[in-house]
Amino acid sequence: MKDTSLTQKVHFTFPGYLCCLTILLSFILNVFASEYHVSPQGNDRNDGSKNMPLVKIQKAISLAQSGDKIILADGVYRESLNIEKSKISIMASGKAAIIDGEENAENGLVITSVENVIISGLEIKNFTECGIKISWATNCIIEKNIIHDIGSKTGISSAGKWVTGIYAFYRCQNMQIRQNAIYFICGHNESYGMYLAHSSTLVEQNLVYLVDKTGIRVVDTDTIGKKHALDKTVVRGNILINNGYCGIDVNMMQSDFGVIVEHNFCGWNGANGINPKHSFNWQLLHNTMYANCYSGILVNSPEPRSTNGRAFENIIADNASGFRIHLMGENCNFDSNFYTKKNPSSTVFHDTTWTGAGKAYLMLSDVKTKTPYEARGMEANNDNTFIDTAKGDFRINNISAAKNAASGKTDMGAWAAILKEVGPDAIYGLDNIPLIHCYALQLAEISGEREKFPGKNLIDGSTDPSAVWQCDGSDAMVIFTLPGEGQAAIGSIQIARAGHNKQYNPKEIDISIRQNTKSAWKEVLNGECYQGGAGRIFVFPNGTQAKQIKIEINNHGADYTEIADIRIYAPFKIR
Predict the structure, then answer these.
(1) What is the DSSP letter of 11?
(2) N or C: which end of the chain has fewer CB atoms below 10 A?
(3) Can you say how many angstroms the Cα of residue 65 is from the centroid of all Cα atoms in its chain?
(4) What is the DSSP letter of 279?
(5) Burial class (CB in 10 A: 0-12, 13-18, 19+), 559
(6) Higher pLDDT, 542 or 304
(7) 168-179, pLDDT tens digit by residue?
């Protein structure tokens, strides 16, 4: 007779048992997961229910267990958060849950040694060092947050500490950072919207603007000469505009897996659109670089030199120079990119690797015959490449030579199908690049200028990299008049350095305003620029209005100072 006992009827292999147990535990955790509600009008003696919320977010974190959610009501929370628990979520119930450091606390959120943590929908502002700092974390998601006013608005060094919107480091694996907006990260030579160090991260659909140095930096400094087990980082479908130095840089990324940078828009940055350096195994694919003050793409690598790099099917349009190479390593391939330029004197390609002291090429045809690059590259000056740049629509015009010119008969540069739903409200994309209004300035007064490089170069609208203002190194001053009959609202100022020689960068900048051409000056921003390079973005106090702006520059005894451009912006916020 067949045995129908339980021991005969049920057989589990050990792996199958673990799988079933995992599913069962996950089900139980989801069923019994709790929500803790927090409100500025709450009380920490409450139970954290929707009708009896807590008042401190940190209190909710201390109570939360695996699978729990912490829901924040609209309002201001004046606290810094430490998260050392896995599988919890902190999210806003509306669009105005604000974590405010009041310019005293260092970090907004510090997340350490966790997995499956979600941070969503928060506004994080007024911290001196970092908005979100995360380390030793796995499978975490940072999404739909607004992070701004981190560091020092005046351009003064923040106690020697780097300043970042999001800082992910020490083996953060399988991270997702998506649909965030980051701006006004200022006050140090090393200021970044995001700084991603030896981590595997998907970075997509973020908007990063008006950061003192670089929008996104990817770095892998501790793996030189070692095998690296992490998957590659992908930076895809982001908008990086009006930053002080660079949109995206890939620095010391020396893993076996490398980094892919694709379908991003980098425009109006103070130096470069994208800048790989000292890095291995990097790919720049289908990005659009537009109107950057130094170059669209810069590959610069003193030892260790960048190797195994590829740049294909990017659009490099109307930058001061197109593609610049300095001291590059081996096995790099740059081909099939699309170039345009407004200024006939701007270089398409500048190469110091293969041509000794450096050769600037004005025509792509010379690049094809005299360098190993751009055999299939395209150049179309005076080409109507984009649909409507004045309205922020950077999709490819149907009559442009860049249309259907990439492999598979796809468009060159970023694709609208990928570069879309950017930012916390998912409203930006290739067809809606945000335009930060830059005032047309009138040069009212200037002192300390040199005849060969006069101050008028700052307002001539030229993209020629040699059209700089060169002024006295010990004492120089320029006064701009803003347009219109009365005062104008001003939000920030961008001072773009000329080239890469720090010796000629300003060391001290004082900025004053006045309400009309005869009233007294009022100093609003002042301080030393850290390492002669910071302070490229200065943020005016909210509500600032002026008719004239005076900028005083001191280079502490250097022969002279060079500045490529000064831009004064109207206030701009995404909400």
Answers:
(1) -
(2) N
(3) 34
(4) -
(5) exposed
(6) 542
(7) 987 788 999 999
Burial annotation 81-96 (CB, 10 A radius, 16+ → b, else e):
bebebbbbbbbbeeee
If residue 366 lies in a helix (H) or strand (E), which one and from where to where? helix 364-370
Cα–Cα distance for residue pair 262/265, rounded to 1 Å: 9
pLDDT digits (tens, 9 = 90+) for 30-88: 555 699 999 999 999 999 999 999 999 999 999 999 999 999 999 999 999 999 999 99
Alpha carbons 23 and 312: distance in angstroms, whole number: 44
Torsion over CA: 162, 527, 243, 335 (sign): negative
Q: How many CA atoms lie within 13 A of 449 on its CB side?
A: 18
384 burial (CB, 10 Å; 0-12 / 13-18 / 19+) is middle
For residue 547 the two structure tokens come to 């008719």
Q: Where in the chain is the domain with CATH 2.60.120.260?
A: 442-569
- Looking at the domain covering 442-569, what would its CATH class be? mainly beta
Taking CB atoms within 8 Å and a gap of at least 24, the contacts of 19-28 are none
Q: Which of 216, 215, 210, 116 is nearest to 172 (CA)?
A: 116
- 3 state SS of 504: helix
Helix H or strand E segment including 63: helix 57-63
Q: Using an 8 Å Cβ cutoff, are 340 and 313 in contact?
A: no
Are 116 and 152 contacting, i.e. CB atoms less than 8 angstroms apart? no
Report the DSSP beta bridge partners of residue 513: 522, 549
Please compute, for residue 528, the number of CA atoms within 13 A of its CA located in the half-sphere on the CB side.
8
Residues 554, 556: Cα–Cα separation, whole Å: 6
**Exposure string for 195-215, b = 16+ CB within 10 A, e = fewer:** bbbbbbbbbbbbbbbbbbbbb
Which whole-number Å values give the CA distances from 23 to 10, 19, 20, 285, 334, in the listed order?
A: 18, 6, 5, 40, 48
